[in-house]
Amino acid sequence: MESQHMTQQTFAQFIQISPASLSSIFNDRTKPTLAIVEAICAKIPTLSLEWLMFGTGAMYKNDVVNSAGNGSNASQKTSDGMLNFAEEPSPTSPSSSSQSVVPDGNKITMKPQKEVVKIIDKKERKISEIRIFYDDNTWETFVPAKS
Asked: What is the top-level taxon of the source organism (predicted)?
């Protein structure tokens, strides 16, 4: 997700899963399912399955042949309007030198993004009356004393 420069929301849309499912994984509420791993591998075939599942080895597969001659670009749009990150970037692309490779044995921990919530100050509310309804279809109304 970080190597693709995507937010959780964008990445979830890119791999076609619900953002809530991805958020639950990052917050350690659930474990990734096979369907999610397959969705990631289908959209980013150059990603190493060993790295994705266990956090070991190189992030990208070493046996991928770079297709510099066909003029493909990593920012090429797909038919559904999403960016196509499945292809390797061309050597002239500035992002090709910024690909990170994780050394063996190290795991990357994704930290969830913090959202700032603004609490809007409201006028203090006061109780005007309380009504209690009984099963014999009667009720009582209680009004607080005015101060």
From this structure: Bacteria
The pTM of the whole model exceeds 0.70: no
Nearest to 103 by CA among 52, 57, 60: 57
The pair of three-digit structure tokens given for residue 57, joined into one six-digit string: 């080895």
d(CA 15, CA 13): 6
- Beta-ladder partners of 126: none
Residue with tokens 């692309």: 93
Residue 108 tokens read as 């990357």
| Dihedral pair phi/psi, residue 141, rounded to 5° | -115, 130
What letter would DSSP give residue 97?
A: G
Q: What is the mean pLDDT of each run of 10 residues along the chain (147 residues)?
A: 77 84 83 84 84 82 48 48 58 47 59 75 85 94 86
State which amino acid sits at residue 127: I
- Alpha helices, DSSP H, located in 15-134: 19-26, 34-43, 49-54
* Residue 24 in tokens: 């639950």
Domains of the chain: 1-67 (1.10.260.40)
Q: Dihedral, CA atoms, 19, 6, 102, 21, nearest 10 degrees?
A: 0
